[in-house]
Amino acid sequence: MELKIGSVVRAKAGRDKDGFFVVTAIEKEYCCIADGKSRKLESPKRKNIKHISLTNSMIDIKDITDKKLRVLLRAISGNE
Predict the structure, then answer these.
(1) pTM for the full model?
(2) pLDDT at residue 66 greater than cutoff 80
(3) How many of the other CB atoms lie within 10 Å of CB of 12?
């Protein structure tokens, strides 16, 4: 699977290890991730692509709020 905006990922390293996030932007070897709680959609975290792992889930982040994002990620993390 390919990393795209809206992909749900799991952090493999760092302070947010094992947390679920959604990709909001992609740069060369970095991406910006948000979870709606500690990392809001307005101020996502910049993370090295090597430090995340892809899941099989996608979220449409167009017109989504932080609260809706938290609910969706909680449901996805319960299934993994």
Answers:
(1) 0.91
(2) yes
(3) 14
